[in-house]
Write a structure and sequence with these properties.
Blueprint lengths: L1 H7 L4 H39 L10 H15 L22 H19 L2 H4 L8 H31 L15 H38 L10 E6 L3 E6 L1 H20 L3 H28 L7 H33 L9
Antiparallel strand pairs: 1-2
Helix pairs in contact: 1-9, 2-3, 2-7, 2-8, 2-9, 3-7, 3-8, 4-9, 4-10, 9-10
Amino acid sequence: MDAVRALLGPKHVLISGIMQYSMLWGIMIGFTITTAISTATIKRSACFHEKGANAKCKVSGNSYMLAFGALEILLSQFPNLEKAKGTIKVAMAGEDLATSTKIWQVFQALGNIAFSYTYSMLLLEIQSPQAENKAMKRVTLYAIGGTALFYTSLGCMGYAAFGADVPGNYLTGFYKPLWLVDIANLAVIIHLIVGYQVFAQTIFAMNEKSLATRWQAHGSFFNKIYTVRLQCKQDYSFQFTPSRLLLRTGFVIFTTLVAMMFPFFNAILGLLGSISFWPLTVYFPLNMYMVQANIKRGDSTWIMFQVLSLLCLVVSLVSVIGSVAGMLEHLKHAQLFHINL
């Protein structure tokens, strides 16, 4: 938002802020869903190992989402992060699927790809003190190249192994060897438990800063710091403010409820990627660069950027359509708060 304000002016700040923080919140929802899926997969694999491959092992993910939300409420009360210490074959696949369904899934896949490349909310946070045209160009090239190689390899291996039945989360499709699948899912769970706070703390900080400014003049107890001392073998103290305790807890609870209502892995990721890809990764960066580099309207570079921006906008729009269609299809067979993963 600060970069947009400096280069494009205040009228663009509101839109960029809404998109950026919506994306951060959406990632929190995605993390909640993914953690529940990975936990449920561990439970299912243990059931198959015990009862055999043909056993009916249905596991509801709601309880795991609640447990994950409770854990994140606890972690949300910890100090801020900087104070913490610690060491192509899609169109032809699926003979039994309707043509319209395959089209929506292709569009949804575009949103999934866009989600993978929407790193704009982190790019400025890792800005190097070196010249931007040297260090950051290399960082961006390596990051995009590595991401492309990683996801392309996963996509090819997934279709080679499962064909048209490839699951959105690959780990849900494997149950042998049991120990390896469980370790992989456990690694995902650990990663997401901590990663959740990376995105959540940014939203918490924005809300608490806004409220502190609004309530400070009135001397409200809302931002008063309270200290709780615990008498154990050593003296421990815990500081909190009512704003942090109530707002962070309420926000995590709300996020968990939304995830429980819409636990559609691919559709959610596709929707998040599609609505944020064009404005955050294409439109604002391109326009900021043109202002900084003083590129005039009508220049060849300006025309090239406009064509690129238009193409990416089309990708975002069709992926929104595909993701919404996927969510509507899931909702036909879903019961609120009773969806089995």
